[in-house]
Every structure is written in structure tokens, then in C-alpha cells.
Amino acid sequence: MRQVRISALLLLAVMLLSQALVAQPAAPDPERDKRLQWWREARFGMFVHWGLYAVPAGEWKGQPIAGIGEWIMNRAKIPVKEYEQLAAQFNPVKFNAEQWVQLAKDAGMKYIVITSKHHDGFAMYGSKVSRYNIVDATPFKRDPMKELAAACRKAGIKLCFYYSHAQDWHEPDGAGNNWDFPPDEKKDFARYFEAKAKPQVRELLTNYGPIGLIWFDTPRLITAEQARDITGMVHTLQPNCIVSGRVGHNMGDYDSAGDNQISVGVVKRDWETPVTMNDTWGFKKDDSNWKPVPVLIKQLVRIASRGGNYLLNVGPTAEGEIPQPSVERLRAVGQWLRANNESITGASPSPFPYNQDWGLITTKPGKMYLHVFEWPGRQLTVYGIRNRVQKAYLLAEAAGTPLALKQESKPDLDFYSASIGLPPAAPDPNDAVIVFEIGGQPDVVTALTQQPDGAVTLEAYLAEIQPGSGAGITIDNRGVASGWTNPKDAMKWDFKLFRPGTYEIVAVTAAPFRNAGLDAGHQVTVEVAGQRLPGAISQAEEFVDPSNPRMRYYNSRLGRVTLSKAGAHQLALKPQSIDSRRKGGLSLASIKLLPVK
Ligand code: H79
Description:
This protein is an alpha/beta fold. The protein has three domains: 33-343, Alpha-Beta Barrel (TIM Barrel); 359-445, no CATH class; 456-595, Jelly Rolls, CATH 2.60.120.260. The protein is 22% helix and 28% strand. The chain contains twelve helices and 30 strands. An eight-stranded parallel β-sheet has the order 7-6-5-4-1-10-9-8, sandwiched between helices. A hairpin with a 2-residue loop joins strand 2 (59-60) and strand 3. The radius of gyration is 25 Å and the shape is globular. Bound molecules: ligand H79.
């Protein structure tokens, strides 16, 4: 029960976060383009959550404290006076800036974003604004940010600072601490903002050389005026310094997806997802739920294939060491990336609005990179590429030996097929990258079509939404419908079929987090080719998203239809009733048509 409540809270927080943060950069802005140039190339960065919370490491007075580790002060409602005492115990003598930076470099990361101050209010650098900082309040006395700045400069890595500009649980007027101080609405937030947040950000941009980006987070209480003010201050002090999407009021230089949220489909904005390697940002001694290496590689590729940046977190210990499981994983990702870097760094997104089921695509001028996660055996067929493929080869193979290639087309059906001959076993089980040299820009069929395995996948994020009430459905950044509570709302898709036959219809629904509650009990009808198929949504058949195992999905098998002609078809999904006990409504991810053999 408790689990359920926490998950629901978390979900709510993530939804609030992601909604508040997703925005479209407005007018063309050459200054912004210039600032973002390195960041758009980079695609992969290291997030570091390091602070006093590494001392309790998830445990307070002998009790494990649930939730993300850097939130322990809030979760356990630790009084400021008690939490402050952690500083005296913080002596990370094993900290070695060059080692951290080298690890990031070995992983193929191009920037490091480190917590200069998290919500607990403790500055991890020598600050003249507040003595509550690592140099003045700990036996360590060193300024790790100075050391990191030097190491980054030497290694050619961009140093960036996370700074919690709104929440500050140490200050009476900072947002968030209502256990020592009055509720937020009674605070003089402007006083904290002027007296601590702004002067500290000024220090960070003045004393550490060129800074790549300031990563503001959770803009609670921040007014539009304050967001503009602090953004302007950053750009005035360092015109090339990027401001993160979470500064508030859409003032940032790019958009931040929610924590651990990976966008799907075409994303027409600069974006980044911060991702945890286990279930916490700040170190927790009992969190060993590490994501496996293949998941991390898939996440990197998935984000790159949608034009985003992957900011992958490590949470160093109070001794100053990056946990060994993180080190091993980063080395493994780096090993993959060394052989396949060309397909990620500086790469552009997939030209297709949907994902192929064998893997994902990235592009560069004249090239398409096919990231094959599910090795198909001796042959891979891809539909929808109109370009003439001049040469196909495995990226990791130095010689680039051409693979046998066959292209066919039936332009009246918009049918284009490219098949390549492959070695029987995957040359890299994580992701073997095949390069298609296509001469010019990718020219592909963006309409939904049947795929080589005979399946048709109608993604919720590619549906035409027919609103029954005018309000209702939005698509979250996993591409899943949310807010579908009105059974008068419907979804419709156009698609192209190449092989007439009998198809099983499967509705795929999603649960954002484990135990997030039932998404069953809805009754729906599918209409296609003059046939009506009533059915129930259930959670009996569960599977996980391979690039995000925390995301659970469910197949509801609705029955069979016969599609007797090739060419254009239309399918509509119309709910008959939506179970109101499920607050998010009908969380549709996709409708699949699976050929019946
Ligand atoms: O720095 C990391 C997080 O600490 C920060 N953003 C990332 C990058 C962050 N701040 N707030 N949130 C994330 C979302 C808040 C989630 C909450 Fe909860 C849900 C706050 C209260 C309920 C999780 C569960 C944290 C405490 C309990």
C-alpha cells in the first residue's frame, strides 16, 4: 500500500516536472544556436550528484529512508541543525578529479554536470556567500570544483554546474523546507533568491573559468521575472554558457525531459534526459538496482535517434569515489562507443517518425546508421528508404567490407525495401551498427506502413486524435496517451498494407511505474476495413520496454480482422467505457496488427 502511494506521488511529481518543462524554443536565436553548438554535437554527458547526503547514504538513525538519496533531509524531515553536522564528517580524501574526468572521457562523455549545490543548500565549492560550503565547513577544506575545472580543461571536457536555484532546505526563505520553516507561501523567497542563489551562481560563473552550462532544477516559487533575471545573468557573465530547461518559465536554452523520461517520436526541439544508473541520484549504500550495460547503450542510442542528449548519473560516495558498478558500466559503454562513435557524436535523429522493431536509426550527411539491437540472422530488411543505398557495411569493422544489398520498390504502393546480407551472429550483441551510404539527405516514407515482419504498429503518438469533448488526451514523452478519460475521444490512424491477410489486433497500454495502479476495465472498439471489434483492456500480459525496464506495458488481445486489399487503410480506436478508478484513463501506447500465420 505504502509502495503504491509513493509510486503515485512520484508519478505525479514526474508528470508535473515534465509538463512544466517541455516547451518549444520560440523565434530563431543565433546567440542560442552558437551556445548550443557543442552541446548538440555532444549527445552524451555525465551527471554527478555529490553532497552531504552521501554521508548518510540512504540511512538515518539506523532506518533506511525510501526514495532518492539526495532527498534524505526532506524525506526524514531532518532539522537543519542536525543535517548541518554531516559537514563535520564529510572528508572525501579519495576524491581525485583527474580520475573522474578520465572516467567520463573513457565512457565517451563530452561534458560533466556536477551538483554545486543541491536542494539541501550545501555548496560543494568554496563560497564567500555562505559558510555552509565544503571549504569552510568540512575537514576536507579543498574545493573539488577548482580541481575538476582544471582536470576538465586538460581533458577537453566541458564542466557544467547543477545549481538548485529555488529549493534550498537550509535557508528560511528558500523553497521546500516546511519542517524547520514556515510553508513556502509564507516565505520571502525573493530575499533568499537575491541573497544566496544569484550571488552563488555569480561565483560559479566567475571563479571556475568557462562553464558549459548551468543546470537549474525544480523552479518552485520562481517568478517569470526571476527566471529571466538569472538566465540573463548567466548569459551576461558567460555568453557561451547554456541555461537548462528547468530554470523556469521556458527561459532555458533547451528543454529537459522529466527525470528518467525518454522521448519517442519526432522531437522538434533541443532536449536532454537526465537518467539514473540505479534508482537514486545521490549515493545510497543499499541501492544495487543497476541498469545493465545493454540498457544504457539502448538509452543512449534511443535518445540520440530522437535528437536528444543523454545525461547519465553517477553518485560518488562520501569518500569521494564513484561506485564500482558505475565505473564498470561506464567503461563498457565507452568500449561500445569507441567503435561506434561516428553514429552518435554529432549525429542527427532518425528520419522516420516511428521506431523499427530491430532497433533505431541515427543519421549524418550522406549516411544512415542502423543500430541493430535484435540481430535478425542472415538478412535484415528495412522498408521505406527511397534513397539508392550505394554501400552498406558494419561500422565497427575497420575494413568496412560491403554487405550484399538488394533494393526493390513499388512506388504506387509507396513500397520501398532494402535488404542486406549479414553474418549469422550479431558482431556486437549490444548494438551492431550498419552504415548505409546514401549520397544525399535521407528520403524516407514517413507514413505508417506494414513492416518486413508483417506487423503494423500504430503508435499513439502518431494518431489523429478526435476529441469528443474538446479537452482530454495529451501524449507524454514516452509517446503514451494520458488524460484519456472521456470515452467520446477517439484515435484514428492511416496506414499502408502490402500483404493482405488476417491480422490479430493487440492494444498496448502502459503503466508508468511498477504498482502504478490498474489500467484494466476499459472497454474499447476497433474499427477497420468495415469490421468492428469490441474488446477489453486488461493487464494480464505484461512486458517491459527493453530500453527502459522500469516501464511496463500490457498487451490486450482484441481479436482478428481480415484485410483483403493492399494499400491505404484506416483504423479507429473508440472506447466504449473508461474505468474511472484509473485516474490517468486509457494509457494507450499503440495498436498492433500482427499477421496470423
Ligand atoms: O537532482 C535530481 C533530483 O533530486 C531532482 N532532479 C533530479 C535531477 C528532483 N527534485 N525533485 N524531483 C526530482 C522530483 C520530486 C519527486 C518527489 Fe519525492 C516525489 C518529491 C516528493 C515526492 C521522490 C519521492 C523524492 C521524494 C519522494
